[in-house]
């Protein structure tokens, strides 16, 4: 019988797709679409975690009252503006060796769908999303077939 994962490290998505603060909003959106993800940790060229940007942040930027409702205006706006302009810099993170239950509690209380996962020194090593937690729950609750 296999060991039940206990730490964030065991169920997180390692080496997450990231974006730099100077990337355009269009580039961030393209990364999200290409990889089927909803949030991107924002890191400096040295790999330092400085923010996070989500699909919701991009939707809010697209709905700016300063824009016309024309798709070409949104596309131009996303090419002209940078991730640093809309990223969230107050970060809620979790260390990789924390218990999974602590991550779930933190996500629930903070009302976030994902947590950047860091080592003790602050280095980004992964991301834990609501989907990762649900997949873990399914593995725990799904009946295991046994051969007789």
From TrEMBL:
Keyword Transferase tagged: no
Keyword Nucleotide-binding recorded: no
SUPFAM superfamilies, alphabetized: CBS-domain pair
Classification via Gene3D superfamilies: CBS-domain
Any single Pfam family the record assigns to this protein: CBS
Keywords: CBS domain
Boundaries of every CBS domain copy: 12-69, 87-146
Stored InterPro entries: CBS_dom (IPR000644), CBS_dom_sf (IPR046342), Diverse_CBS-Domain (IPR051257)
Alphabetical list of PANTHER family matching this protein: CBS DOMAIN-CONTAINING PROTEIN, CBS DOMAIN-CONTAINING PROTEIN CBSX3, MITOCHONDRIAL
Name the record gives this protein: Acetoin utilization protein AcuB
Lineage: Bacteria, Bacillati, Chloroflexota, Ardenticatenia, Ardenticatenales
